[in-house]
Amino acid sequence: MAVQISPSILAADFARLADEAAAVPNADWLHVDVMDYHFVPNLTLGLPVVEALRKATSTPLDCHLMIADPDRWAPQYAEAGAGSVTIHAEAAKAPVRTLREIRAQGARAGLALNPATPVEPYEDLLPEIDMLLLMTVEPGFGGQKFLDLVLPKIRRARELVSRHGGRIWVQVDGGVDAGTIGRCAEAGADVFVAGSAVYGASDPVAAVDELRAAATRARG
Ligand SMILES: O=C(CO)[C@@H](O)[C@H](O)COP(=O)(O)O
């Protein structure tokens, strides 16, 4: 699968979200971080903003739910038009049902793991998902330093996914920039979330192109 870049609007100007979405027409996805002050110590945005963004951009929305009760809310993000909805393994109490409900609404279903959460216990869930999101920082805030300790897990995740037919995308999120994206790509990631590295750049379009080129080069 070709490299995909998903700029995180957490690093964008929340007062100008439609313009910020339009600022990266070369992005494959727009990553939308939903936080609820419970699963993570930060609060961002919810369904009404996702519904508004859906109307404001044709770029598919990649909704990452960092919320305490994804079983209750995730299907509604899919219904609101998100192209992909990712729930955290640490928060979901009924992940099989929730992942199936996301797919039933026509969205891709993702499972996210915090840096210290191992991937192996979730092997049986792989048939239920379209994407595995490996956090490369502790979730909650943009602008954090990339955690190298996640690299071996990216390799193990790639192996597991390959054993299951290679259909599932491996996404990395947190501290991804021109200096770290190559290592993630070499380890087996194929979808890259980048907040500060895109929206903190003077030219976000060029930043997306550079990240894509660096990841593509690293895959060889
Ligand atoms: O989910 C999160 C943070 O919890 C991320 O999506 C961040 O928004 C990535 O930001 P950068 O580390 O790229 O600045």
TrEMBL record:
Instruction: Report the GO molecular function annotations.
Output: D-ribulose-phosphate 3-epimerase activity
Which residues hold a divalent metal cation? H31, D33, H64, D173
Which EC class heads this enzyme's classification?
isomerase
Instruction: Enumerate the active-site residues.
Output: D33, D173
For this protein, the record's SUPFAM superfamilies field holds: Ribulose-phoshate binding barrel
Q: Which reaction does it catalyse?
A: D-ribulose 5-phosphate = D-xylulose 5-phosphate
Q: In which pathway does it act?
A: Carbohydrate degradation
- Record's superkingdom? Bacteria
Q: What does this protein do?
A: Catalyzes the reversible epimerization of D-ribulose 5-phosphate to D-xylulose 5-phosphate.
NCBIfam families, per the entry: PRK05581.1-4, rpe
Name under which the protein is recorded: Ribulose-phosphate 3-epimerase
This protein's species is: Actinomadura luzonensis
Upper classification of the source organism reads:
Bacteria, Bacillati, Actinomycetota, Actinomycetes, Streptosporangiales
- Give the gene that encodes this protein: rpe
